[in-house]
Each structure stands twice: as C-alpha cells, then as structure tokens.
Write a structure and sequence with these properties.
Oligomer: heterodimer
Helix content of chain B: over 70%
Strand content of chain B: under 5%
Shape of chain B: globular
Order of helices and strands of chain A: HEEEHEEHEHEHHHEHEHEEHEHEEHEH
Structural class of chain A: alpha/beta
Number of strands of chain A: 15
Radius of gyration of chain A: 26 Å
Low-confidence stretches of chain A: 1-61
Shape of chain A: globular
Largest interface: A-B, 30 and 25 residues
Low-confidence stretches of chain B: none
Number of strands of chain B: 0
Helix content of chain A: 25-40%
Distance between the termini of chain B: 28 Å
Strand content of chain A: 25-35%
Largest sheet of chain A: 6 strands, mixed
Largest sheet of chain B: none
Radius of gyration of chain B: 19 Å
Number of helices of chain A: 13
Chain lengths: 392, 268
C-alpha cells in the first residue's frame, strides 16, 4: 500500500475513535476526505478497510458512511407586514432576510450506528436530514454519504439510502400496499426472489401479512407507518434517515416500530440518523446524540455521557416534622427552600461533590423525617440543552 | 423501464377505483359544451344567412368543439393545477427526489396512465354523441383517420405534459403558478383552435400557427378525426411536434435542475 494511502487509513482510525467517543461539540475530523466520485467508491457498500502499518501489523477500521464537514444552510425568506396594507406593500417592496437554519456542523456516523438528532421544533433537524438525503442543497460545507455527494442525487446514491418522513407518506393511498411495494421492487430493481424473501421478513416481523391487500388509506396510522418502513427498507439501504417515525402513534405502535428498528439494525447494520421528540425512542435506539439548538450543534456525544457531563448538581428533598425543625435546617443551610407543593418538605440543589457534606451538616442540626437525593433525568438535561434553559 | 409501466398501471388502477366522478363530469361537459356550441354556431350561421362554412356544417362544428373539449380533458387529467407545481409547493417532491428514477419520467408515467383512462372514457362518450347527433353530416372515422388521431393525441398528451412541466417548475421561484397555467389554457383556446377550427382563421394565421406547439393540443387531432388531414400534413405536424417536444424537454430539465437548488422541501 502506498505511504499516502496508508496515512489515510491511519488517520481514519483516529477519526473513527474520536467519533465513537464523541469528544465534544463541533469536533473536527482529521480524515482527509476522499474524492466523491464513483470510481473511488466503486465498492462503496464495503464498510471495512484493511491496511498494513509500517511495522507490518494489519489494521482494520470502519469507514464512516456519513461524513459531514461544516455543513450549513441559510434560507432567504421575505417578511411581510400583517394586514391588507402589508400585502399591498409586499407587492412592490419585498423585504428579504436570511434565516440560518443550520450553522456549520461537522460529524460522522459509522455503519450499524444509530445517531439521535435532537432539537426543539425549528432547530434544523429536518433541514440537516434533507440535505443528507440529497433533497436540499446546502449553503456551504461538504457531506459524503456512502462515498457520494448527496445533493448530486446520483442513482447509485439513491439505491443506498432511505428517507422516512413520519408525516409524509410515500405509498399510494388509494391502492393496497402490495401495489406500492411492487412498484418499489421495480424502481429499485430488486430481484424478484430477494423481494419475496425480504417482504416475508418484513410482513412477519411487523405482523402485516393480513393487511397487504388493504387500501393504504383504510389503515390505521400505526399500520400505515409500518408499511412506510417496509417501503423504505425494501431495497436494504446502507444509510437510513428517520424523521420522527413514531410521531402521533399510540404507545404499542411506537414500541413495535422501535423493536423492529433494533431488530433491523442487528441484522443489516445500516447507519441511521433518527429524529424524534419521544425520549423512549432516543433511549431505546440511540447510542450517540447530536443536539441542535437554533441551528447550532450544542452536544455531540454518547447518550451515557450526557448525564455524567451535565448532571453536575443533585436535588435534595428533606422531609421535616414542624416549623422548629425547618428553622434549624435553614440556620445551617439557608439555600434550602420550601417545596411549593408540600409544606413539610424543604428542597435544595447542591453540586454533586458536596452532597454528603451538606447532608451531614443538616443531620447534625436536626433529625429528618425523610430524605431523597435526585439526579436530573435525561429528558430534563436534553430539554435544557435544546432550549438553553438552566438546569435546576 | 418496467417501473414506468408499473407507475402507469398504478395510476390507471387508481383512476378506475373512482370512475363515477369522471363519468358524471364527462356527461355534464358533453351536455354543456354541445349545448353552448349549438346555440353559438346556430347564431353565427344565421348571421351568415344560413350559409355553412366550407367543410363545416352546424353539426360538424358542434362535433369539432366537443372533440377539442374532450382532448383538453384527456391531456390535462389531474395535472391542470396539481402535478409538478403542487409537488414543489407542498413539499411532496421530497419523496420523488429519493427514488433512483427520473422525476419527470415518474410524473409522465402517472400523467400517461391518467390520460389513457380519460381517453377511453371520452372516446366512448364521443362515439355515442357522434352516432346520435352528427352521423348524418359526418360518417364515423375510418382506420387511417383513427391512426392519425391516436398518434396526434399521444403527441398532444406528451407536449401538454412537458409544457405544463416547464411552467410548473417556475414554482421553485414563485411558489404558486396556477395563474400561469390558466394563461396557458387561454393561449391553447385561442392559438390551438380549441374553440374555433383553424380552417376558419385567416390563411396567414393558420400558416404561422402551423409552426407553433398549440394546434397539436386541439386542432390537429380534431381535424385528423374528422378526416380533414392528409398524410403529408400529418407527417409535417408530427415533425413540428417532435421539435417542440425536444425544445420543451430541454427547457423543463434545465429549469428543474436550476430550480431544485432553491428547493427547501417545506411542507413535508
């Protein structure tokens, strides 16, 4: 292997590790980007690269199938004053403003990885997904998905991705699902034998066999969403973008879809980016999170790292018997406050390292009826990150 | 290209799932168009002292109007104010952009499927009207007229699709394009001979219009069905239509390629 190429392999190892451990916000990849043309990625479905290091040992590392570098999107939208006069004015004088839907963002995703893309409404999640699926052109930056530039929309690229928009259907509402799926078999040129094999797997796993010949518009939302998944995954894409796949579904349907996605990931190892507002989706499916706030990446790292990194305080609840006990506690710990909902409880927030010292101080001043120490839950931390709210 | 057939057949099945809306609309259209044209052309001929136009009796004029009216129905089907422009406006384009097949090809297959259903239904209605109303002045078309007609209808469906597509890609910049499509419909009425046979236009106007894409959408197929088109004219008309097809195809694809860079997929 030529020295330069070997260097690429070594650098890629570093980048993958960085990415896997999520070493922080806006991490910069040290990977030299390979040119995105077909010749360079003729075997782009291959996810492992083998190199020989200078000392002769073999190395194996995973190609990240999604590589995003400084990708941004700015919309140019016109503002209109309210009312009829505003409409008339707008005919002659349009006021254009730039809206930064996504500020420069960089990250990578490895095969078999499910990355949760979280953020409040309007944070830029769907914009990012649309750019990576090739629907939208970015304002700046680069992206490489399975070796292709998404917005060039090459047919080979489209064969390797799937986009599932929870709020939009790709099935024909007036026809049974079987017809839409047959059409997709033709569009993706899936061998008929493979098609039937895959369809059997989906129908059995999602319990859809009895609904295959029912008009799509007569199905429940949950049933329709399951067929949307089948339609999107029939060609076995290597990269899957899921934009709120469980939105509006009942708890049972949400669970069925989550179980299916876990099972599918286990069997086929695609890279997935998932957006969802449901914490159950995030905790059940994602190992790693990207959190956006107003188009900016404010967190990139492992799900498990969030609490250790951000839950720096503990909430202590103190059960008291009477006002005398309350006064005694307040004399040694004046930051404690009445719990608004329960008059016999005091509440205080302290740095996690000071918990034992604080409790010892309180217990030396007064006996307690009850004591509880609470860590900020994941949902609160993520919500705080999304909205720039201070954690209590 | 089996996917093309699948899309087309899917569209046909969807149209056949709800046939009654079309039959009711068709029945009303035949009645309204025939009645209006009957009274209109009666008044025109009366003002000429009852003298018919060369080759066009009152019944043939009404038949002509009905043919062009049904042609519009066949060519437009569901795409009049929907189709590509609506996909862009509503964000439905998203789902087509991720398919590894041509978006225009996909839409054309849908358009063709819908048009074929409309053509069969319209032909049945037209045959009934012809036999009951116009047979005494105009015999049913022979094989050569039918072949010319069907070829020109197919060309018309395709040209109408690609002209509409060209206009509808403007939605990338203007969002709403229905006013452009209405304007285009008026142009076809006037320049395509949808209301009045081009034989009744001044000779110079007919000569100029021969080289435009408009008569292929109305006048030429109607004249072919009425047995008024020679094979030489037929081939010339096909040649002109093919040139326009290429021209509009290039413009539509260029416009789409430029416009899609502005596309934000809002609404989806």
């Amino acid at each position: 292997m030529p020295t330069n190429e070997l260097k690429d392999v070594l650098e890629l190892t570093v980048s993958s590790e960085d990415c896997k451990h999520g070493t922080g916000v806006q991490q910069k990849s040290s990977t030299r980007r390979e040119p995105c043309h077909h010749a360079a990625h003729s075997n782009s479905s291959q996810s492992m690269k083998i190199g020989v290091m200078m000392n002769g040992t073999r190395t194996e590392e995973r190609h990240n199938v999604i590589r995003v570098s400084n990708l941004s999107k700015t919309y140019r939208i016109h503002e209109k004053d309210p009312g009829l006069l505003g409409s008339i004015k707008g005919l002659f004088n349009r006021r254009w403003i730039d809206r930064h839907a996504l500020r420069p963002i960089s990250f990578e995703v490895a095969p078999g990885e499910i990355v949760g893309l979280l953020g409040a409404n309007g944070a830029g999640k769907t914009t990012l997904i649309k750019m990576l699926a090739g629907i939208m052109h970015p304002s700046s930056g680069t992206a490489d998905v399975q070796g292709f530039v998404p917005w060039q929309r090459k047919a080979q690229f489209k064969h390797q991705i799937a986009l599932i928009l929870g709020q939009k259907s790709q099935l024909w509402p007036d026809l049974p699902a079987a017809d839409s799926l047959l059409l997709l078999q033709e569009i993706y040129r899936i061998d008929l034998k493979d098609y039937h094999k895959r369809l059997d797997y989906f129908l059995d796993t999602l319990d859809l066999r009895k609904l295959l010949k029912t008009q799509i518009r007569r199905l429940s939302l949950g049933e329709r969403m399951k067929f949307e998944l089948v339609a999107a995954l029939l060609h076995q894409p290597k990269v899957i973008f899921l934009d709120e796949p469980t939105i509006g579904l009942d708890i049972g349907s949400q669970r069925a879809i989550r179980n299916f996605l876990q099972d599918y990931r286990r069997n086929f190892q695609p890279a997935m980016i998932l957006t969802s507002h449901y914490m159950e989706d995030v905790t059940a499916l994602c190992e790693r999170l990207l959190i956006l706030r107003d188009g900016e990446l404010v967190f990139s790292g492992k799900l498990a790292d969030i609490t250790s990194r951000y839950a720096q305080t503990r909430k202590i609840r103190l059960g008291v018997k009477d006002d005398a006990m309350k006064a005694a506690i307040l004399s040694v710990c004046p930051v404690a406050k009445d719990d608004g909902e329960d008059a016999s409880t005091l509440i205080l927030s302290v740095p996690k390292d000071d918990v034992s010292e604080t409790i010892f101080k309180i217990l030396s001043a007064a006996p307690l009826v009850d004591l509880a120490i609470e860590e900020d839950d994941l949902a609160s931390i993520i919500d705080a990150l999304q909205t720039a709210r201070e954690l209590a | 290209m089996r996917w093309f057939y699948q899309v087309m057949s899917g569209q046909i099945r969807m149209r056949l799932a709800y046939p009654w809306g079309f039959w009711i609309g068709l029945g009303l259209e035949v009645f309204v168009v025939a009645s209006i044209n009957w009274y209109l052309w009666s008044a025109v001929l009366e003002s000429r002292g009852g003298q018919a136009f060369p080759g066009y009796t009152l019944r043939i004029l009404v038949l002509y109007s009905l043919i062009t009216s049904l042609l519009r129905k066949v060519q437009v089907n569901t795409d009049q104010f929907g189709g590509i422009g609506d996909d862009i406006y509503s964000g439905s384009l998203n789902k087509y952009l991720v398919y590894p097949v041509s978006y225009f090809g996909f839409r054309y297959a849908m358009h063709l499927g819908g048009s074929l259903v409309s053509l069969v239904q319209s032909s049945l209605a037209l045959l009934l009207f012809w036999v009951l109303f116009a047979l005494q002045d105009m015999p049913l078309p022979g094989a050569s007229s039918l072949i010319q007609f069907l070829v020109l209808v197919l060309l018309g469906i395709t040209i109408r699709f690609i002209m509409n597509a060209t206009l509808q890609t403007m939605a990338f910049w203007f969002e709403q394009v229905w006013s452009l499509l209405i304007l285009f419909s008026f142009l076809i009425m006037l320049l395509g001979g949808q209301l009045i046979p081009l034989d009744l236009y001044p000779a110079w106007a007919r000569e100029v219009l021969f080289y435009t894409p408009f008569p292929i959408l109305a006048a030429w197929p109607a004249e072919a069905l009425l047995g008024k088109m020679s094979w030489l004219t037929f081939f010339q008309v096909c040649g002109v239509a093919c040139v326009w097809l290429v021209v509009f195809n290039v413009i539509a694809r260029f416009s789409f390629a430029r416009g899609v860079r502005n596309y934000s997929g809002i609404g989806a």
